[in-house]
Amino acid sequence: MKNYAIAIHGGAGTISKSSLTPEKEKAYKDALEQAIMAGHGVLQKGGSALDAVELAVLHLENTPLFNAGRGSVFTNEGKHEMDAAIMCGKTLDAGAVAGVRHIKNPVKLARKVMDKSEFVMLMGQGAEEFALNHDIEFAPAAYFYDEYRYQQLQDARESGKTQLDHSEKKKHKFGTVGAVALDMDGNVAAATSTGGMTNKKYSRVGDTPLIGAGNYANNKTCAVSCTGHGEFFIRAVVAYDVSCLMEYKGYTLQKACDEVVMKKLKSIGGDGGLIAVDTAGEVVLSFNSDGMYRASKLNDQETFTAIYKD
């Protein structure tokens, strides 16, 4: 039987043991476990990598612990603007949405854009109009409201700065969620979702919905989902760069990820991380920050979950 594998992330950044209570740490690990087991269940039954990453990300969107879907941070206007993307490694088909405000699960809308439209990316009101025509579930503003996130907005407004996810003082956490998977048929897929930056203005969009920057999948190489300061990931075209190093230079997945995350990205001031899986089932969880909420599972082996660097 061929290998099948899945990996997920819930954001990276300055995450130290002192910044999380034992109860909070357990809550994060439990959420990661539930999400990865949901996606793994799809693969275990012979389902597609696409379905697996969509379901895993949907689980992460549904918990307020992570900056995506229900846990999305507030914009400067006190609203929510969410982005998501999904990509199929077999066909290179992709779907993405940016700046949606009322979609319960943006990853589901991204999948619908891929499956039911001639486009790759839709944004704002147009994306929501498309959602209405394709039975995508909406949610009221109250669904996305979280008191902790709201206080982050107040702090950011006082400082006059944009903050990366639930940054507090100098502890930065980049709140994107994502999943990559390899199914039994040898196909890879990636999905990524985010609420963006606290206190962001002007409908800012980061790397998450940009195919090749924050999300990419190609059966020739690998599937990648990123989390970090989006502007740097866009400039470095991080997800596609990992794939290119494998396809054109013959790098292993680990070597390609190390080159991009630990060298190229850091050289321009970018921090964060990514998860990746290749068509052989190798999984890499790479980050240059102090921590990354992450989990992985190969075949029926024990599930790996971690938060901190060590």
Automatic annotation (TrEMBL):
InterPro entries: Ntn_hydrolases_N, Peptidase_T2. It comes from the Bacteria. This is Isoaspartyl peptidase/L-asparaginase. It comes from Pontibacter aydingkolensis.
